[in-house]
Specification:
Helix content is 39%, strand content 16%. It starts with a helix and ends in a 5-residue tail after the last helix. The strands form two sheets. Strands 1, 2, 3, 4, 5, 6, 7 and 8 form an eight-stranded mixed sheet that branches. About 4% of the residues have low confidence. With 475 residues, the protein is α/β, with parallel strands linked by helices.
Length: 475
């Protein structure tokens, strides 16, 4: 080859490399993942474990069922800046899980965000077109689960929200616990001038009621307003002291200016505009895919009222998301969630032979929601998982038979236990099932999660969840 031909080849190669780099940047993929779950469902632990395993991609093979990882095409992962929000406290959460005496990270009380850049080698079939290397940017936010239930309030006014809350408060177990508060609420003359001291006192008492409903023995989920659940101040700001009107009020005279009804209507609107709408518009309206974490074992332990309340809460939450396929043009302006994973957490709290039952039970719990999603051409799947495995499999002999058991440490006391945790029903419990002391699943403390040297045994199906949610992006 002559000098001219050699120069032409160099220019051609340089041009080709430049085009490939442009193609790689053009086809970089961004995924906003909605990690959704009610308070205590395991969102923070899931995000921490997911990030920890991804950051170890170049060292460990802990995600064998993530196809791109199994094929050695995931080259590495690193966190990058996510301006505008508080950083997700990954290091602190990992320190809690990897300590010599590990413990679950504290519940989330504010919004935080983490953004990951995952570098991968494209599969042979398309790398000639788009270039050999690609990057997926994975964006995840963590937030208090208590905030989720507030989102539907954007579609209601104060009176319609009050009616919904009144229906809940008139049913057991709320009605028994709230008897005195309901009596005081119904004594208010809603058209008379507002007595701010009286309204504020009822607001504080309603906050205390909500917080008691969240705890055992009730363990309820359908609790609004969510910010009241996190409030500990003896004198919170007045607009947070929001509660429903539970008496019948005539609309014939309208809403007199300065009345109790006008004041609570104002507080409702202020709450929605100040706290709820920014949370929705800045984050929840922009998600592409979603994992919905559910603690099925808690619902079984706490009984029928808890079970029904969680189903109501889940269906209420899902009404706030945009589901369904759009054209590329529409997705540029209005993202829609096109793939949803329903995940039953604490799969490590039951024996391996019960995982299929836990899958099935979750399918029954979310049947109606999945039906609506499938109508919108949204892919869905149900899966039991454990982001961090806290138990070990064991066997015990009883009456000449070997039983599958678990070994671990009680969450409350730290004492070691070995037990048969019980069976997961494959049908939704009937009314009589809730009165037989049938379900008694215990909570376990975590086993120490290593800083490096991660293995598949440190989780259950975390890799399958990642494959379902992100696998197609690494083709």
């Amino acid at each position: 080859m002559g000098l001219t031909g050699h120069l032409t080849s160099l220019i051609s190669d340089a041009h080709k490399d430049r085009l490939q780099r442009v193609a790689e940047r053009t086809f970089e993929q961004h995924l906003n993942l909605a990690v959704t779950g009610l308070s205590g469902s395991g969102k923070t632990v899931f995000i921490t474990a997911l990030v920890h395993h991804l950051l170890q991609l170049d060292q460990d093979n802990s995600l064998p069922l993530l196809e791109a990882a199994a094929e050695k095409r995931l080259l590495g992962c690193r966190p990058i800046d996510a301006p505008g929000t508080r950083p997700f406290p990954f290091k602190g959460n990992l320190a809690a899980l990897s300590a010599s005496e590990p413990h679950w990270p504290r519940s989330t009380r504010d919004l935080s965000q983490i953004r990951l850049a995952i570098r991968y080698r494209r599969s042979t079939s398309i790398k000639r077109l788009l270039g050999e290397w690609g990057t997926v940017y994975l964006n995840i936010i963590d937030y208090p689960g208590e905030w989720l239930l507030d989102l539907p309030m954007l579609q209601q006014d104060f009176l319609s929200w009050s009616q919904q809350q009144t229906n809940l408060l008139q049913a057991s177990p709320r009605v028994e616990a709230a008897a005195q508060w309901l009596k005081a609420n119904r004594a208010i003359d809603w058209h008379a001038p507002a007595n701010l001291a009286q309204l504020n006192q009822l607001g504080l008492e309603f906050r205390d009621l909500l917080q008691s409903f969240r705890e055992p023995p009730h363990a309820l989920s359908m609790l609004q307003p969510g910010h009241l659940l996190l409030s500990e101040a003896s004198s919170p700001e007045q607009d947070l002291l929001l509660f429903p009107l539970t008496a019948e009020v005539s609309n014939e005279t309208g809403t007199p200016e300065g009345s109790a009804l006008a004041e609570m209507t104002r507080r409702y609107r202020s709450y929605c505009e100040r706290w709820v709408r920014p949370f929705y518009t800045e984050h929840f309206s922009r998600f592409d895919r979603q994992i919905i974490l559910t603690d099925c074992l808690k619902t079984l332990n706490q009984g029928e009222a808890c079970f029904d309340d969680m189903q109501l809460a889940l269906n209420t939450i899902l009404s706030s998301f945009h589901y369904g396929k759009n054209s590329l043009f529409r997705r540029l302006f209005s993202p829609r969630i096109d793939r949803v994973l329903f995940a039953a957490t604490k799969a490590d709290h039951v024996t391996a032979n019960q995982h299929a039952n836990l899958d099935r039970f979750l399918e029954l719990m979310v049947h109606d929601a999945r039906k609506e999603m499938r109508f919108e051409s949204v892919q869905t799947r149900c899966m039991a998982l454990a982001s961090v495995r806290s138990t070990q499999a064991a066997q015990a002999r009883k009456d000449g038979q070997l039983l599958s058991c678990l070994k671990g440490y009680r969450k409350e006391t730290g004492e070691p236990v070995a037990l048969f945790p019980g069976e997961i029903p494959t049908e939704l419990p009937r009314a009589e099932d809730w009165h037989q002391d049938r379900f008694r699943f215990i909570d376990f403390a975590p086993r120490a999660l290593p800083r490096s040297g991660l293995k598949p045994e440190h989780h259950i199906r975390l890799d399958q969840a990642l494959e379902y949610l992100t696998g197609d992006l690494f083709r």
